[in-house]
Design a protein that fits this description.
FAD/NAD(P)-binding domain, oxidoreductase, about 25% helix, flavoprotein, about 25% strand, five-stranded parallel beta sheet, alpha/beta
Length: about 350
């Protein structure tokens, strides 16, 4: 724990204004804003996550394609730390509200008190059964991120639900070779969707996959099927749904949407006072720039709640005018970080 954190006077537990759970693009963007806006902030990150799996970064303006997810997140983490925020590698197992209104976060090796909690823990894609190519080299989950690389290429879509059928038809905007692989499972999309599929040049392959061939660079070359056929593919998309990491939100009493995401307002506020949620765990497109925008909006909203000045007329009437000894409203630790910023 760095020197920017302060120990609570009574319990000795490290105390912050803002605790962000999850070190993805959304959580780190929130932390960047709250730290730069003068609020002692900690990010508790277990590592991994959807963004960390990216072999290349797509659709993030100013970031080139050759930047991996781990490189992107590593740079963002260092930015938060350089501005005076703390980043702790741990898995938060429990969050409870204290009698004084603060939140107590308990991890495997960490205990923290915070005035505000931000949940940026995302979701996990359901993976189909093997054989499968490597994620990012023939196995993909985000059409909006990766469709561009499959222009004029042979593409598969795995799945049996509405999402699989519609992604397959959308991919016809990029290529004329699209197969839906049901892998021996029954079709679950509606009769109306079936009529749409039949009206589009999409092949539905019902036989399961028995083998896979890869190129020397690790990219998928083809699948072998139980009827003995071999079909070549550059890559494709697995559409089996998502598991949202809402355990902490549910324990806090946050409302959930029917699709499993957390109910939030336009600034990331949940139904529980003092708790925010950002990124893929909330409704909307699962895109890095979108997640960053959600994190920024939450950071700004938290700043408006926590900032010391301006005082209200009621406060000034009760406490008197603000004296020069009371300003600035930023902690000494963050002031020191700001003064030394860029010296290294």
């Amino acid at each position: 724990m760095s020197e920017t954190a302060g120990a609570d006077a009574e319990s000795g537990v490290e105390s912050y204004e803002v605790a962000v759970v999850g070190g993805g693009p959304a959580g780190l963007s929130t932390a960047l804003y709250t730290t730069r806006l003068g609020h002692d902030t900690v990010v508790v990150d277990r590592g991994g996550g959807r963004a960390a799996m990216m072999l290349d970064t797509h659709n993030v303006i100013g970031v080139t394609e050759d930047v991996s997810g781990n490189e992107f997140l590593g740079t963002a983490t260092e930015q938060v730390k350089e501005y005076g925020g703390d980043v702790v590698r741990d898995f938060v197992t429990d969050i409870e509200r204290e009698p004084d209104g603060r939140f107590r976060l308990q991890g495997n090796d960490t205990e923290i008190l915070a005035d505000r909690v931000v949940l940026g823990v995302g979701f996990s894609d359901e993976r189909p059964e093997p054989p499968l190519p490597r994620t990012g080299k023939g196995l993909h989950y985000c059409l909006h991120c990766d469709a561009y690389m499959f222009i004029d290429e042979s593409v598969y879509v795995m799945g049996t639900g509405e999402a699989a059928a519609h992604v397959a038809m959308i991919m016809l905007n990029f290529t004329d070779e699209v197969d839906i692989l049901t892998r021996g499972d029954d079709i679950e999309w509606s009769d109306e969707t079936q009529k749409l599929v039949e009206a589009h040049p999409v092949d539905v392959i019902h036989e399961d996959i028995t083998g896979m061939n890869k190129a020397e660079d690790g990219w998928l070359e083809s699948f072998e099927f139980e009827d003995g056929s071999v079909r070549e593919y550059k890559g494709g998309f697995a559409m089996y749904g998502s598991n949202y990491n809402t355990e902490l939100a549910e324990a806090l009493g946050c409302d959930l949407n029917d699709d499993g995401t957390i109910v939030v307002d336009d600034h990331g506020k949940t139904s529980v006072d003092g708790v925010y949620a950002v990124g893929d765990i909330t409704p909307g497109h699962n895109q890095v720039p979108v997640a960053m925008g959600k994190g920024a909006k939450a950071g700004l909203a938290i700043h408006k709640e926590l900032r010391t000045f301006p005082k209200s007329l009621e406060e000034i009437k009760a406490e008197g005018p603000i004296t020069e000894t009371e300003v600035p409203g930023v902690s000494a630790e963050l002031q020191a970080a700001a003064r030394s910023f860029g010296d290294d």
